[in-house]
Specification:
3 helices, alpha+beta, 4 strands, elongated, Alpha-Beta Plaits
């Protein structure tokens, strides 16, 4: 197991819950934590200010390609934010996360 945190932003709570629900069903993530944020960014030459939903998912590096493919097909942004980084954690928690991603999963 190579555990990672996966950070994704969404335009709405509904889209976040729909997509993360599918990622959970497919065992691509063990869980997702999300909350509203305010975002400033440049898009097509203009500064934008939006309300978004940020989501931090627990996953494994072996799942990232499947997550990326799913987002490319189902996320409403032209260029969705998808970043990840390795994490370390309490063995019992990491074992639980791995078990959740192993349930019926094919990557």
């Amino acid at each position: 197991m190579e555990p990672i945190f996966v950070y994704i932003t969404f335009p709405s709570l509904e889209e976040c819950e729909r997509i993360c629900g599918h990622l959970l069903e497919k065992s691509f993530i063990a869980c997702a934590n999300y909350s509203p944020i305010s975002s400033l960014y440049r898009w097509e030459g203009a500064v934008q200010k939006d309300n978004e939903i940020r989501c931090l998912c627990k996953s494994d590096v072996s799942k990232i390609k499947a997550i990326e493919t799913f987002l490319d097909e189902h996320h409403s942004y032209d260029v969705p934010c998808l970043v990840w980084w390795p994490v370390h954690g309490k063995k019992s928690y990491m074992d639980w996360a791995q078990k959740e991603m192993d349930l019926g999963s094919t990557t």
